[in-house]
Fold:
Amino acid sequence: MMHRLPSHAMNKPARGSLLSIEHLGDKEILSLLKLAGRMNPLKARPLLRNKRVVLLFYEASTRTRSSFEIAAKSLSAITTLVQSSGSSIEKGESLLDTGYTLRAIGADAIVIRHPAAGAPHLMAKHLDIPVINAGDGMHEHPSQALLDAFTILKHKKSLKGLQVAIIGDIYHSRVTRSNCHLLTRFGAKVTLCGPPEFVPDIAATLAPGLRVTRHLEEALRGADVIMLLRLQKERLAGQKIRLPDYIARYQMTAARVKLAKRDAIVMHPGPIIRGLELTEEVADGPQSKIIDEVHNGVPTRMAILAWALGKAK
Amino acid sequence: MANDKSGTRSLLIKGGHLIDPAAKIDAPMDILLRDGRVAEIALSNKIRGSADEKFEARGLIVAPGFIDLHVHLREPGQGYKETIASGTAAAAAGGFTSVCTMPNTAPVVDSPEWVEWLKHPGRAALVNVFPIAAATLNSRGAALTDFAALQRAGAVAVTDDGKPILDDEIMRAALRLGAELNLPVVQHAEDTRLTENASMNEGPTSFRLGLRGMSAAAEANIVDRDVTLAQQIRESRLHVAHLSTAEALKAVRRGKRGVHNARVTCRVTCEVTPHHFTLLDENVGEYDTNFKMNPPLRSASDREAILVALADGTVDAIATDHAPHATHEKQVEFERASFGITGLETALALAITKLHREQEIALTRIVELFTAGPARVFDLRGRGSLMRGHFADVTIFDPKKRWRFEAAKSRSLSHNTPFDGGQFTGKVVATIVGGKIVYRAG
Structure:
């Protein structure tokens, strides 16, 4: 009886776009991970020769930006970096106008990081070239989830049945949203842990089988993977969290890591703040795979770029 | 104004089924309109004498002209979004013969001069325009406007719509002054201290999309506070705009029950929009800014509570909150997009499709929500009913007609609607203002 709602697609996102893990198919995820395994930044492959990849960054970034750039260059693409400061964005140019401009210059793909959730969707719906989400507000960070899965699979046989504890500021974390979608999709059991300000109960609705707990011990017991998150001071608008309390309850210490499985790995999307969400000992400890993650970012993003531009081989 | 006072034009509406809830009529009736007023109502073929013009209404519902308590016609100052001429043309196409305009224009309508400007014939309004003036100067929430002067100039209510009056003392003073003048104070209920940077309803969808959410409490807390204040002031009149949550409805019900032992109570009324009784927050999809408005689309349980309140009489009126915006204000990042959607041309279709056909709410109740209900809220005398002597404002519609709404064909200057391409049942056939046909379906 209800009238038919019009389709949400003003336009369909451009082919090859990577906007979220939520809407990425299982098959695509598996083939991207497989492809990443075949990519080697030290052995350049000219898959993207003469392709122009624009890195459009409206937010600060070290890891994501440089690894996308190195990934593109390892595939022989031409890259150019556009940042909000020092460009027409500062003069008030709209996101879409910036997109049209970059397209007119000859961009074959746009890698975008933006403080507003959904900004890559908007661009992808109005451009005819692939748009790759390199982090949009609090929404998603799909390439990080892919490189995290890639990293986990270097140490664990399968995601199925794996116990993953994600600890910290879940609410503001685009990395967590992407990871929750990916990990639960392939059968991992994910527990989110932190104070209610960071882990609202509603977080459990994000994906099937997600669990929320306030107790670190409960999250860590039996965990195969411990994922830590930075406390994002720049996103703490209006929230009153006392850092000493947070550290006392949730900081990852060597003693706490011992609560997890003996062969558990410790991960963190970076940047890490030593002495806050984790101790020096944990960051540099034998179970830490934090540097591996950064390292794996390059082949994963090579795979994403090749896939986006239809050169996945 | 649209009233054509020239000559003795008369119009006979024949063969239709009249629904006039205020007059308790739900029967086949003919109506004769003359000189801008209702001259005669009688059973079919019982009206004697001739008319200059006849309107054949067989198979159609004839109702008092619809009244919209909440529209943004954007003038003065924002003619690129809408003008009074274009907005009232859209109103006429939607069956509305009277619209109450919100004062959050540029400049804000906070002086009698701007109220008069809105009502000036030069605005080329196609339907009756009843300005709602700002409650505080420049809607800054600090100093009250001159309610008496605004009322004399033609304002039917006061509000700072878009911005709530947060300060208890200012709200108390507004209700007190409104009580003296019998002038309703309309509140956009939102505790903006709780909704900073929020762009949709707080819930699973906002969490999933990574958008900051507006809690139901941010609305309900203000409605609750306002009802409490109103109940302390004899004869005060509080109207809650675009109510959207189950929690806020509880406060309105408390206000309507009145204060025990009080001899003269306050009057608390509320309106609900078609989009809030039709859509849910999850319909935002992947950041579709045509689903972004304030108050935002809410949860299924909120919508359920609203549907119950529409049926049981708690809600006084359906109002559109017609809020046109230019494409460049909507085709941006969701968080940065302007709040608001157009609504004049889809209101009746949504009411019939959702409320009548799906929820089985009687047509008489739906007509009441568009006519007698809103007329009472702002005391629009001589409107909201077709009793003899009342204004000849009539809406004629076909409750069974299936049609497809196309935003591109809208009369509004803006096309920011979530209902583009929607398939509906129930269509306006003709709109008559002051005895003159101002819209006729093509």
